[in-house]
Amino acid sequence: MLNRKELDPEESARAAYGARLRRLREERGWTQDELAVKMGCSGSHISAVETGRRSPTRRLSASADRALGTGDLFERQGRAVWSPAILEGFTEFVAQEVKAAEIRIFELGIITGLLQTPEYAAAITTGAVRRGAITEQQAEERLSLLARRQASLERTPPPLVHVILDESCIRRPVGGTEVMRAQLERIVAFAELPSTVVQVAPYDLGERRAFDLPVTLLTLADRSHISYGESAHQGQLERDARFMQPLFTAYHQLQAEALSQAATVTMINQLRKGSL
After folding, report:
1. What is the DSSP letter of 264?
2. CA 235, CA 88: separation in Å to the nearest integer?
3. The CATH number, out of the four listed (3.40.50.80, 1.10.10.60, 3.40.50.2000, 1.10.260.40), of the domain defined by the range 13-82
4. What is d(CA 253, CA 131) in angstroms, rounded to the nearest whole number?
5. Residue 166 in contact with residue 109, Cβ under 8 Å?
6. Could you tell me which of 1, 39, 125, 217 has the fewest CB atoms within 10 Å of its CB?
7. Among 100, 102, 81, which residue's Cα sits nearest to residue 18?
8. Given pLDDT bands bounded at 50, 70 and 90, which one contains residue 234?
9. Which tens digits make up the pLDDT trace of 65-121?
10. Is residue 46 a contact partner of residue 35, using CB atoms and an 8 Å limit?
């Protein structure tokens, strides 16, 4: 089939759902239109779900289970799509992040993922499980994706990574004293790498802090730019050049206002030793 889009089931819950729907349909020798008739929808709708362009609904999942004779398989698999461990938009962002030439991050409240130790990351996801925000399986999915993202920084040549942490990130205790101490040590070690810069935006910046929400800015190999930001329920990827310049300008302003890397390392070491 020409222009057939193949999905990687490991990429996301939506991709896994679409790949399974296609596989079970093809095993029965049905076209998309034939399955659509049995499910009471259109062939284009089936195509959109199979290629990950549309999320499956609860109604569609129940119809798929009836048509394919799969019990409640699609209804159960759909739950990972309806209540995902990974925000919509984040998977697409990661696909660009792992090949970006430059990564610029501003983070609030917690240490940004690329700098997290396994223990710190596990404490964050365990907290989300205890709150009922995600399942244990979804927590494992998050941690696995984070490990792949961190490993991608070791490519040759490595990307330039510039991280600005709000002071709240290094002062908020996560996972207990030992976990937090090791996390602070990790930040200092990261700052010593030749392709990285780490700065803290101190509390006393006040209204001079350029961002009120976390943001990541990517520069790709062709020098095009992408930004990524999140709300509680949605990730937003932006490529429009009209919006990129103001974001980069604001980031550069924040770089100028934040502590130098040397002052940042000094602050973190004092925190680590309990002298701040």
Report:
1. H
2. 6
3. 1.10.260.40
4. 37
5. yes
6. 1
7. 81
8. low
9. 999 999 989 988 887 676 566 676 787 788 899 999 999 999 999 999 999 999 999
10. yes
